[in-house]
Amino acid sequence: MPSEMLSEFGHDPWWVIGLKAILVFVVLVLLTLFNIWWERRVVARMQHRIGPNVNGPFGLLQSLADGVKLALKEDIIPKAADKAVYILAPIIVVVPAFVTFSVIPFGPVVNFFGHETPLQLTDMPVAVLFVMAIASIGIYGIVLGGWASGSTYSLLGGLRSSAQMISYEVAMGLSLVAVFLYAGSLSTSEIVAAQQDWWYGLVLAPSFVIYCISMVGETNRAPFDLPEAEGELVGGFHTEYSSLKFALFFLAEYINMATVSALATTLFLGGWHAPFWIDHIWPGANEGYWPLLWFFGKMFFFIFIFIWLRGSLPRLRYDQFMALGWKVLIPISLVWLLAVATVKAIQLNGGLDRPVLLVALGVLLVALLGLLLWPSRKTTEAPDDRAPAAGERVQAPSGARRTFPTPPMPAGGATRGAAQPLVFSQGRSANVVREEA
């Protein structure tokens, strides 16, 4: 039987459904343009640059100008490409990115042009599984795009991306099962309603952390942007794409960022509910169109985390990245899921004293952290931190992997400002210095 929340869907006239779909599409396109501008401005600020500030107020129209320029560039199709699949791949990637937003709740029931309707396109009893299933279709577009290009580098980038997204979808799915157990539903609107008092980001903190790590790997964003490792694969699975087809891949990446951020907001941060329990002071905070402000504020918080990571962390090695997913995140997700299911079963069969429950959860959390931080390899010999002298040959310790010394930091700390100019001593040319080095 449909629940009370799901009974609110399926009664809208056709024009309300069509207008909702158009608004979701327009919001996602405008959100992509804004996120590109915001990322360039934030990263520029972190790197002591200015960023886009010419086209439009504060440079807001720079993304639109870049998109128009990209769409009007010459479209080149490689001679060795499978033309039909080559053209179809970007469409397969971008369409699921739009469809996944159809079950995201933006707010409660509102007066929409004289008609009472939820601020959500649709909902279903398995809405979260629908999001995961539709998002998985995008992997086919990436693999087919790399294969159909007729380039070895593009194929390797597509295979990397598929392995990466499938691996981190496993950890992401396991982190969401704990939410389903607590909410008792897979419907997005019912999960938001179940967080009216306490957000699952607080109650299920390990699941929240695992999801946040997995969503960065799922969207191929730095420091997990291995499919686009320029030094190894030129440009990744879309190396041979140009013009509008490349723009579609780019659009799908930024919409997927918004999708996983919106899903994190819905499942862990109370969705459109007001933060910091503002509704206890202001009863109208969760009524009307005000919840749109809370929802987008939380979503922009996650998008800022994406940008912050890109501007501060270096790219991981591929083996390190896959080991993090299969050897750390998935085992911890399984153990945590077993604990959550046990606690839920105890509560349903008579309950357990709250102090005992909190102590047990604390011990489990400490054990998980210890498992995460446990050193994977013991060093047999202490590393030599001494900087090698000029011409000295560095020998790796016996029985250990070869290591390379790290140059010491400057005496006054990290250098700021412009780099110091190169100055050679008199009577010595640059070639002589290069030969000595």
TrEMBL record:
Source domain of life is: Bacteria
Describe its membrane topology: Multi-pass membrane protein
Report the EC number(s), separated by commas if there are several.
7.1.1.-
Span-the-membrane segments of this chain are: 14-38, 84-106, 126-147, 168-186, 198-217, 246-269, 289-309, 321-343, 355-374
Region: Disordered, residue numbers:
380-437
Query: Which PROSITE patterns does this entry report, sorted A to Z?
Result: COMPLEX1_ND1_1, COMPLEX1_ND1_2
| Pfam families the UniProt entry points to | NADHdh
Keyword presence, Transmembrane helix: yes
Keywords from the UniProt entry: Cell membrane, Membrane, NAD, Quinone, Translocase, Transmembrane, Transmembrane helix, Ubiquinone
The reaction(s) catalysed by this protein are: a quinone + NADH + 5 H(+)(in) = a quinol + NAD(+) + 4 H(+)(out)
Compartments, as annotated in UniProt: Cell membrane; Membrane
Name the family the entry cites: Belongs to the complex I subunit 1 family.
The record's subunit annotation is: NDH-1 is composed of 14 different subunits. Subunits NuoA, H, J, K, L, M, N constitute the membrane sector of the complex.
Q: What does this protein do?
A: NDH-1 shuttles electrons from NADH, via FMN and iron-sulfur (Fe-S) centers, to quinones in the respiratory chain. The immediate electron acceptor for the enzyme in this species is believed to be ubiquinone. Couples the redox reaction to proton translocation (for every two electrons transferred, four hydrogen ions are translocated across the cytoplasmic membrane), and thus conserves the redox energy in a proton gradient. This subunit may bind ubiquinone.
What name goes with this protein? Answer: NADH-quinone oxidoreductase subunit H
Q: Which organism is it from?
A: Nocardioides panacihumi
Q: What lineage does the source organism belong to? A: Bacteria, Bacillati, Actinomycetota, Actinomycetes, Propionibacteriales
The protein's gene is named nuoH
